[in-house]
Amino acid sequence: MENFPMEKYNTFHVAVNSKYFSEFDSDESLYEILDFMETNKLSHLVLGGGANILFTKDFDGIVIHPVSDNIVVDGDIAVADAGVVWDKLVETTVSMGLGGLENLSLIPGTVGAAPVQNIGAYGVEAKDSILWVEYAGVKDRKLHRISGKECKFGYRDSIFKHELKEEAVILRVAFKLTRESEDYPYNVEYGALRAKVSELGGVSISNIRKATIDIRSSKLPDPAILGSAGSFFRNPEVAKEKLDGIKSRFSEVVYFPLENGNYKISAGWMIEKTGWKGRAIGNAAVHDKQALVLVNKGFATGQDILRLSDSIRHDVENTFGIILHPEVIIL
Ligand SMILES: Cc1cc2nc3c(=O)[nH]c(=O)nc-3n(C[C@H](O)[C@H](O)[C@H](O)COP(=O)(O)OP(=O)(O)OC[C@H]3O[C@@H](n4cnc5c(N)ncnc54)[C@H](O)[C@@H]3O)c2cc1C
User: Fold this and answer.
1) Which atom of ligand 1 is nearest to the CA of 170?
2) pLDDT at residue 287 in the model
3) How far, in Å, is the centroid of ligand 1 from the Cα of 111?
4) Does residue 278 contact residue 285 with C-beta atoms inside 8 Å?
5) Ligand 1: which atom is nearest the Cα of residue 110?
6) Whose alpha carbon is nearest atom 35 of ligand 1?
């Protein structure tokens, strides 16, 4: 399809067009699209739910959108197609008594995007369960299977953002899960999650899922109602000296120690501290319940949201001497 409106295909609901738009529901149909792309010398974007993307202009290439949505569970291994809605996979596996993904309930988007930025929430990351990823090579047109280790996962990071950027179209992902039992390693290290789980009657994977959904629904905007892409910025990593400098001025700074001896400072806390929480520039605003989330209050353009993010980055840099980097992909 040509000159395709993208408003419904990005959770910021930014109204841009893409030159071409094509869905694939099988490996074969993807290879046909790749041929078309090559013949017409088109740049491409693989787009799942558009929940981690900010379009700032029309896309002058082809958007490739997976709609394949099979989930096959064999023992404790679940293999899901790229087009499966992420939360459908979590719901399916939890309802079968298989644990591993429950803390990642209700994260918007598709299975195919989960390894790209190694989605994470409430102390768990996709990498903890990913066994392998299968992708089609854009140049060599071959089917590749790489292990979780070969994906080089990091904090919101993977090989798909570096060496394999624009080279891999993820087709399916396998997850190694754990059947719930007495010695199942529940992760309720987050105080709010622990409290909610106990309110629900005690720890179980289905209660962790319910609690996660409750907490997320109360804090984060529902993209169907208020456009956003979740956390807009990454939490910056700093050395101890830098943190100490900030602590001497702001004793209440929110931070987390990392295994490498550095610290992660809460970007949301810094944004709140600079007075941006709840503020807007036109129709682009900082969410009033979670300062890390930028929202589209109406008809904001991608440029409006980008301007807001630039103003926030400017103020955070002036106040803390730290440059915030977006978690969202800006196109
Ligand atoms: C309200 C809200 C809350 C959120 N909360 C969280 C959270 O708690 N934790 C978290 O980690 N994220 C969170 N996010 C971000 C988002 O949900 C994740 O990044 C998710 O993985 C995006 O999935 P998607 O299918 O929409 O990806 P898209 O936005 O469509 O794409 C993201 C990137 O992945 C690439 N990609 C997508 N599919 C494929 C594929 N099949 N093959 C190759 N590349 C592909 C795209 O090219 C792009 O680079 C949140 C977003 C929203 C809107």
Assistant:
1) 42
2) 94
3) 9
4) yes
5) 25
6) 113
CA distances in angstroms from 102 to 132, 231, 264, 266, listed in the order given: 19, 20, 24, 24
Atom of ligand 1 nearest to the CA of 135: 42
φ/ψ (deg, to 5) at 285: -140, 165
How many other C-beta atoms are found inside a 10 Å radius of the C-beta of residue 46? 23
Checking 206-212 for CB contacts under 8 A at 24+ apart, the result is: 206/94, 206/95, 206/102, 208/102, 208/103, 208/105, 209/90, 209/91, 209/94, 209/102, 209/105, 212/102, 212/103, 212/104, 212/105, 212/106, 212/121, 212/122
Q: What is the pTM of this model?
A: 0.92
Testing ligand 1's pocket by substitution, the residue of 44, 116, 218, 222 carrying the most ligand atoms inside 8 A of its CB is 116
Amino acid at 50: G
The per-residue pLDDT for range 33-84, each reduced to its tens digit, is 999 999 999 999 999 999 999 999 999 999 999 999 999 999 999 999 999 9
Q: Is 290 in the pocket of ligand 1 (CB under 6 A)?
A: no
Letter string b/e over residues 178-216, b meaning 16 or more CB atoms within 10 A of that residue's CB: eebeeeeebbbebeebbebbeeeeebbbebbbbbbbbbb
